[in-house]
Amino acid sequence: MSEARRGERLALLERFIEVGAEAERSAFSRPSEWGDTDAWFRTTQDVMNRLWVAERLIRIQFPLPVHDAARAYFLDLNRMVWEGLPDGESVRDYLEDNRLAFLDAARAVMG
């Protein structure tokens, strides 16, 4: 893989991970009740839109196993942000398996 291509991929991974972290913070700070005019909703909607775009770019730039792992993480995170978790479940624990699967798939491709 050329250095330019590797640099593009690395920047995209950084973008996806960074926005994913923002989305996780939104999940952690999710109020029990919110509406379309709440600051949390407006901020979180922007974050999730950026994460959606980054996830689609992963599909374009990486082999499908990397995208599949990114997609599973995105779907879990999206569900958690908008629907919440049952009482007693941890945001971190809920996301851990798919987050690590994505990172491991990306590492394998980046060598």
Structure commentary:
It is a single chain. With 111 residues, the protein is mainly α. It contains four helices and no strands. Helix 1 packs antiparallel against helix 4 and helix 3 packs antiparallel against helix 4.
Give the integer mean of the pLDDT values. Answer: 94
* C-alpha geometry: globular
**What structural class do helix, strand and pairing data support?**
mainly alpha
SS field, number of helical segments: 4
| Domain count | 1
Series of secondary-structure elements, N-terminal to C-terminal: HHHH
Report the major sheet.
none
Low-confidence stretches: none
Percent of residues in beta strands:
under 5%
Task: Set down the secondary structure blueprint.
Elements lengths: L2 H26 L10 H23 L2 H20 L7 H20 L1
Outline:
It contains four helices and no strands. It is mainly α.
Write out key terms for the chains shown.
111 residues; 0% strand; mainly alpha; single chain
